[in-house]
Amino acid sequence: MLNIVLFGPPGAGKGTQSQKLIARYNLVHLSTGDLLRSQITQGTELGLRAKKLMDEGLLVPDEVVIGMIESQLANNTTAAGFIFDGFPRTVPQAQSLDELTQRYDTGVSCMIALEVAEEELVKRLLERGKTSGRPDDQDEAKIRRRVNVYNTETAQVAGYYAEQQKFHALNGIGAIEEIFTQICDIIDQKQVAPSISDGQQAADEVKA
Ligand code: B4P
């Protein structure tokens, strides 16, 4: 099973590259940002809580996003693998992802980090903000706060995967297609871990 963590600051290209990767590798795309925005659109209590934090460029509490990922994994037990986009954003989230995937006898195959300088991030997100309708993309001060939150709370997640020899960094500035090719080169070199369905089959065989 192929489980890729796509990592980087806001605007690094995670969402953009995820769309291309799910098509190439037939993976399920799990974007915590998209899942939270869907809760906001549906007007759920979770969405209302998340909206206040997201609009200010702050992180949503760990237990909220971990709960969302837990149910998405449970709903996709036959998947060939997952792209985790924007998750994990804290070390406790990374630890939970290991625990959750272990339940299905699988784990994170690798983390790929897209590195982009702050001025380019601000430029990209302000540009996206002209059409995205996202309040967190329309105000330079909020964008810089998101980058600051990334530097202070999220960047350390890279060390968590580096300790497991799963961390790969790429320059996220350049043509989208060229960056995609470099990501695919890393993925293609990875050894494939057992799938959720393999794990369940093995568990069923033990029970039988
Ligand atoms: P996300 O939805 O994850 O938003 P993001 O990081 O801003 O998007 P992304 O990085 O995917 O955008 P992309 O580069 O593709 O998070 C939003 C908020 O949700 C967070 O601030 C937080 O509040 C909350 N949240 C989400 N997950 C959470 C978690 N796990 N824990 C706690 N809170 C969480 O695109 C940016 C733009 O750049 C696009 O317009 C694209 O066209 C452009 N672009 C991409 N690649 C380019 C390239 N190579 N060259 C030029 N432009 C490029």
UniProtKB/TrEMBL annotation:
Keywords: ATP-binding, Cytoplasm, Kinase, Nucleotide biosynthesis, Nucleotide-binding, Transferase. The keyword DNA-binding does not apply. Residues 31-60 are annotated as: NMP. Its EC number is 2.7.4.3. AMP binds at T32, R37, L58, L59, V60, G86, F87, P88, R89, Q93, R134, R146. Its main location: cytoplasm. Pathway: Purine metabolism; AMP biosynthesis via salvage pathway; AMP from ADP: step 1/1. ATP binds at G11, A12, G13, K14, G15, T16, R128, G174. One of its GO terms (molecular function) is ATP binding. CDD domains: ADK. SUPFAM superfamilies: P-loop containing nucleoside triphosphate hydrolases. One of its GO terms (cellular component) is cytoplasm. InterPro entries: Adenylat/UMP-CMP_kin, Adenylat_kinase_CS, P-loop_NTPase. One of its GO terms (biological process) is AMP salvage. It is an enzyme of class 2 (transferase). Belongs to the adenylate kinase family. Consists of three domains, a large central CORE domain and two small peripheral domains, NMPbind and LID, which undergo movements during catalysis. The LID domain closes over the site of phosphoryl transfer upon ATP binding. Assembling and dissambling the active center during each catalytic cycle provides an effective means to prevent ATP hydrolysis. Monomer. Catalyzes the reversible transfer of the terminal phosphate group between ATP and AMP. Plays an important role in cellular energy homeostasis and in adenine nucleotide metabolism. This is Adenylate kinase. The gene is adk.
